[in-house]
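Example with several molecule types.
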Amino acid sequence: MNRNIETPICDLGFSDKQEAVQPEALKLASRTRRRSSAASTCSFSSACFTASSDEDTVISPREKKQRNTKGFTDFCVKNVLSQHGFGRREIEIAEQEMPGIMTLRKRAREDKPLRNANIVCCTHINAQTAVMVEGLIELGASVRWASCNIYSTQNAVAAALAEAGIPVFAWRGETEEDFWWCLDKCINAPGWAPNMILDDGGDATHLMWKKYPEIFKGIKGIVEESLTGVHRLYHMSKNGKLTVPAINVNDSVTKMKFDNFYCVQDSILDSLKRSTDIMFGGKQVVVCGYGDVGKGCAKSLKAQGCIVYVTEIDPICALQASMDGHRVVTLNEVIRNVDIVVTATGNKNIVTREHMNRMKNGCIVCNMGHSNSEIDVNSLHTPELTWERVRSQVDHIIWPDGRMIILLAEGRLVNMSCSTIPSFVVSITASTQALALIELYNAIPGRYKNDVYLLPKKMDEYVASLHLPTFDAHLTELTDEQAKYLGLNKSGPFKPNYYRY
Amino acid sequence: MNRNIETPICDLGFSDKQEAVQPEALKLASRTRRRSSAASTCSFSSACFTASSDEDTVISPREKKQRNTKGFTDFCVKNVLSQHGFGRREIEIAEQEMPGIMTLRKRAREDKPLRNANIVCCTHINAQTAVMVEGLIELGASVRWASCNIYSTQNAVAAALAEAGIPVFAWRGETEEDFWWCLDKCINAPGWAPNMILDDGGDATHLMWKKYPEIFKGIKGIVEESLTGVHRLYHMSKNGKLTVPAINVNDSVTKMKFDNFYCVQDSILDSLKRSTDIMFGGKQVVVCGYGDVGKGCAKSLKAQGCIVYVTEIDPICALQASMDGHRVVTLNEVIRNVDIVVTATGNKNIVTREHMNRMKNGCIVCNMGHSNSEIDVNSLHTPELTWERVRSQVDHIIWPDGRMIILLAEGRLVNMSCSTIPSFVVSITASTQALALIELYNAIPGRYKNDVYLLPKKMDEYVASLHLPTFDAHLTELTDEQAKYLGLNKSGPFKPNYYRY
Amino acid sequence: MNRNIETPICDLGFSDKQEAVQPEALKLASRTRRRSSAASTCSFSSACFTASSDEDTVISPREKKQRNTKGFTDFCVKNVLSQHGFGRREIEIAEQEMPGIMTLRKRAREDKPLRNANIVCCTHINAQTAVMVEGLIELGASVRWASCNIYSTQNAVAAALAEAGIPVFAWRGETEEDFWWCLDKCINAPGWAPNMILDDGGDATHLMWKKYPEIFKGIKGIVEESLTGVHRLYHMSKNGKLTVPAINVNDSVTKMKFDNFYCVQDSILDSLKRSTDIMFGGKQVVVCGYGDVGKGCAKSLKAQGCIVYVTEIDPICALQASMDGHRVVTLNEVIRNVDIVVTATGNKNIVTREHMNRMKNGCIVCNMGHSNSEIDVNSLHTPELTWERVRSQVDHIIWPDGRMIILLAEGRLVNMSCSTIPSFVVSITASTQALALIELYNAIPGRYKNDVYLLPKKMDEYVASLHLPTFDAHLTELTDEQAKYLGLNKSGPFKPNYYRY
Amino acid sequence: MNRNIETPICDLGFSDKQEAVQPEALKLASRTRRRSSAASTCSFSSACFTASSDEDTVISPREKKQRNTKGFTDFCVKNVLSQHGFGRREIEIAEQEMPGIMTLRKRAREDKPLRNANIVCCTHINAQTAVMVEGLIELGASVRWASCNIYSTQNAVAAALAEAGIPVFAWRGETEEDFWWCLDKCINAPGWAPNMILDDGGDATHLMWKKYPEIFKGIKGIVEESLTGVHRLYHMSKNGKLTVPAINVNDSVTKMKFDNFYCVQDSILDSLKRSTDIMFGGKQVVVCGYGDVGKGCAKSLKAQGCIVYVTEIDPICALQASMDGHRVVTLNEVIRNVDIVVTATGNKNIVTREHMNRMKNGCIVCNMGHSNSEIDVNSLHTPELTWERVRSQVDHIIWPDGRMIILLAEGRLVNMSCSTIPSFVVSITASTQALALIELYNAIPGRYKNDVYLLPKKMDEYVASLHLPTFDAHLTELTDEQAKYLGLNKSGPFKPNYYRY
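Resulting structure tokens for the full complex:
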């Protein structure tokens, strides 16, 4: 038995100081997350991109009595009858690109490792998450599901889920009040005794803990996906209020690499191309920040013939950028010459009005980072500047002298707004969430204390292995002799927790 | 004051189990390290490569009374008078490529942070390490220096050091007995009270602890560079025998990235080219292992037009290889077709006799990994095979049917044997070692317990920053507002300890 | 004076045999060019992509009497009054990305090198070509303009041109009869004596030569852009019917490199991404053909992490593919395993029904080559296969066993249908056309015989130089001594005609 | 029968003007070619690199009567008896890496297409050329062989050839007089009636034409490899003195791509690494000239993490550099900042003393171009500068203020001096030469006039095809239908002569 594969996250470097002074970055993200249509923590974005804006918003779904074709009524969505067919097809298309969660469903279908699990689910609702949640049900769980974001629900998918008999409460364009009403419906229902929470942002956890403390006591585990939600959990833990174990899936190795480095390599090109039709060869680009996101951006842009400059505050990352063949500069040094500015820092006010005053005509400005504060967009709302919306998500901002800059997605995450997230990337996250639920639900008592944990390394490796057949990749197995030589178990985990992939 | 920037290494994942069953890999490395001319833990290798073998070994330096031009006699090297000029020039050339250690010397020259430090030094002795050790002296230290490897000493450099009045005891081709005699001279000398150890492999620490426990009590800190030495320290710590704090510089981020990923990108090409003059375009290569070393090999070879296959045991690394555009295969699948086999696993018996029996004619086999056991070279010493040495470090091994494979460096680290380590890479390591010595020597009492520590993140960042001017790289500084937003100190550290660069 | 900078194209290798047996490929292209909405010779494609299909086609523009806001009536377009504003803005946006033609306009504005040139213009009509044609007018020319393609006209742009007083005759969705009527209006008009032809496909030339031989006698030169048109001209020349000099701009070096190698590097990624949202990393792709188009596809896809296989008939190109790190295979060898098939051969039936029968589920099939016959799409129209249109330009074709392939753009040029051509690329072509017109119009008598010429190398170099400021690229000038050493004129041309860039 | 596959080179753009004013570049190359140990036209260079300089030069081979072990005496080499074994082994090693020429030998062994050909051979003499010449003999030819360069002969190889009974006249370090004596021995010998010439530089052709006009009348064809030799032939042709057909193999597509673009990608890295041990990551490099050699250098250096700047005089190449992601600059702009300067222009005085006065300390300067005049090395021989030879081919040149630059190979071709040419590259050239000999020797009378021809495209393709099995590359064959569609012969040639690969 592996007693020590799991690691409380607090040991991994969230030091006291960071807690004592909770970074403003996180506070802001939390406060603003439902005000922006591109929620900063959203990782399922095709919804955002493909959304049409022509939906009638006259009658709230809450005011209509609905039933699906089989007479089922325990849900609240928009237009179940007219849209479920289209939504089901979207789900089927997504299934083809989500090998991890589909394989998991197939392998564990017999075992039903989530038998009798009653899960309150609060995540984005779209074709890809539907594949995951229908998977949870296939593995034995009951689920009640609300959206974690008032703008991101794919109505047709919600309709398909309602048609399939799943209690789902969500539609695109909920009010703040609607939001809490839907979530309440998932926690408190006749004959419903939740014992697990699958959360994205911490709202389900917070509402249940605050309003339904008795129900909260029945919870065996929480799985949280977002950075914001993880910090809320950690705060609870610090203050002794976390009375159940939780798993932070946000920081799983496999998920992080795909959400950031790999996903970004595709989406920076796609975002720029779809919004501006720019030709990449010979363009001068400055990438602000050289973490996983900045590294991915810089690599792809360079491969397509851009000349990439990097700005960094951290000398280690700056040295990496240098060795990788990028000039490390301050933004001021290059701002007059570059054709494209990409922010990827997680910091605020990286690109200021002063910078934008000095950009050359036609410079493209966009944000690939965590929050929407990297570019000081507010500073552009002054009377002497003219804004022209030339395409969806593309604004020309024109100075009095005729000079113009091109702002994408109003400074929000450009790959959320102007590109799509491949289902394959979501498959990684979804598999990670499902495994975390299984782990917490089946853990022997005492294995996890009331703390925030990372997914055990071995399960992280398992998520990766579920996605290898897509590439026809063949793993090598250790011989007994080799395993002994390395001091490893033949089935993993293969690396210490601190290993830098 | 930063109370928590340093992290005892035990928190970073060396779990109990790994200790309880000390991997054989480490034990073997330890036992064999002085039997092989390419010491498995050697990171200063230009010495190995440029060494001539024509030196007279008739009279041992121990039997000759030597004095330098100023009459100084407290040293034992080979031919001090005839070679010191050439050695000094080699040191001067190295200085030009070691910006980190040179800058450190210049900056701290006045402060003398190592004033009164008496350091027993046991490392490789070559032009680059000479730059470091002369730096330690410039910063105020006294040093007595023996080599950690019986084959790697650059005699001319040792002569230059002796000429400069440094008590150095080393020559290429020491016997085992010589080795311990030299080390003894560095620990136990009239009027010498050592208070620091700079070790590479753990022998100085072990000898002093075992033979001179009274002297050992005077030690304020140990800085250890090698994996083997770190594990010996850790073992001492486990068993309660480590009575001083130690810093493991082997796992510093900056050092590791340069020793592995960046250094390897150059040296895999260089090693293959110098030894075989092979043309890279279109060659099929299998790289066994996709850690930092394997990643570096695969990236460079692919960039030069090779078709790269990867073998892996770890699904996460296998998924990375797939996403990076390499087919992940088992060695058996491709062994008949590849032109080059590169091992980079740290494991043993990766390439077996059975594999070699099936390789195609002219296949090149080499090892870039940790130990010399990755290729089962012993299995090739059978009567039916003919060995032909066609160049230094290059053997043709010929099967009865005329088929031939090309084995480089007899399976030892090929980049140690057939390439050189750039001084720039050594500069990173040397700066890390010097800073670790300064940190331990100046730490306020109680800051470090008697345990094994990683270099504080902030110092790791400082090492990186020392090397940025080489690239004319300009760091960006956080504004007060940004620092507050991120919850960071403006001067770093900028990342949590678990951050994966 | 440069007597020999221009080269009749016949010297460059269109050998007798090739003419005697005119390849069917060209004949077909010629015959089908107006039947397909993605004209095989189209190089201005944003029109195709951004076109909406909801335009009313009830009343033909020919039946409506139109006048612009200033009372001008010598044109025939759709909805001049309602659309010209939007069209003008599209033109203005295009101007920003077309540095070559804009610089040319600015430099030659005073000289008016096309003063008194009366040009019959028959090309695609869209924002980018409008920038060129308005440039011709700025340089002194009068123009009458019809479209060379019944589907590609941007109506709003045509409206803007009509509003600007340019006699333009074109709309999207012309009938075959409309097409000839419009063209006729450009040749034969009261008080109009054309002396130049700017053609794309050869129809203006053909119509004038056939129907208006007297007018044709007044022509001083023809500039032809398309492969088809060039071959028609060459055929005329062979048969002694070409009574004016013509310049083939299709084969200009600068234009060719941009239309193919550079443009393709962006558009293969963009086409696949926009249509399928596929993630590139680790995908296995076979690129059929390794000419400039195939080379561009292979390079970009590999850089994004794909594993690229190449098929070739030509051993020289195959050897290049090998050296560039791609496996050279037959399609049969890999057809069961690849995720994406890209054709780029200019040949027919590269991907047959038999191949498609064996593809794996979800395989994407698309064409980047010259014609729409590379993929045998017709063979897929059999009763047992189900076609599902899942997005614009994306069909799922489903076999009875449930296996499905994804066909893009029905096998037509995928980058024309699913991507856009950057204005920068069009700027190269447009500058080349404008310079060819200026050259022919101003050539001293006798300089050009009645033959088909390539653009003089020096002008080709000039087109390139017009686009360098975009990249802030600074040319080096030869010293007198160096020019003499190389036997070159300091202002070029710098290379012999046969030079392979 | 293909009547028109061969193309007289004069049609390919060597215009009158270029001839009238023969560029000084060529004249110089011709005049200096035997004065420099790295002959500017040398393409077989491993000889140069591996040569030792310690050979006794006391007694000239001409003064010694030699016989091989079988009593054969018709040769003049150095030390036939002591060295032939080692030479034979070098030849055998080379055979393994020369698939083209070896396959050709195997395939045509029965046919003996060179039966009764008597070839005067004047090329470099080393292991790789020996593989070719022994091939010619295997195909039926008789050969007499002298070296085309007084420094490049591998004596051991010459010994092996003599031992094998081949009349070879060459040794390293011939005097000018020796050179002509040796060549004379190959032309004029008892019972020897030469009918073919294989030349490299034009000396055999010139000597025979001048001194033995009667013998010259018996020649059926000349195959010339070097740029200089080709221009001498062309000059003869212009002046009506060329009385036999000649094939220029220098400009064959396959050979050129390998001699330049592909070969350079490996050798620029290798040359820099072997001579300076520099680390590539982050180094700033300026590559002067962006032809095939510059392109190869820039690509490899960028891939290894260098930041590459390009200088160009030709706007088309400059635009290519921009699109490929390199800044195009003048040398003056960057000369103070770069770490490495690489010349690849074929021009002179690219790097002047003035540039070198401004380089930063430690800047590396080397030449990859055609001649040794690109760097103005002479300007560095002034009293205030100190030259230090730090390694073979590496000089430190030190300014009075201590600043130092590192000059490689004294400005001669660095990849000839500091790297090796892979046998694979030589195999391409050797196959091309052998096929050219076969073509001329077997051509039906009248097929070739007394002019200079390029190798027929079909044979160029055949050379490529001979090298595909090395990469396990599988060509696709045209179907009858496809060949008809393209207007091509199924067995090639596949491209028009002007095609740019």
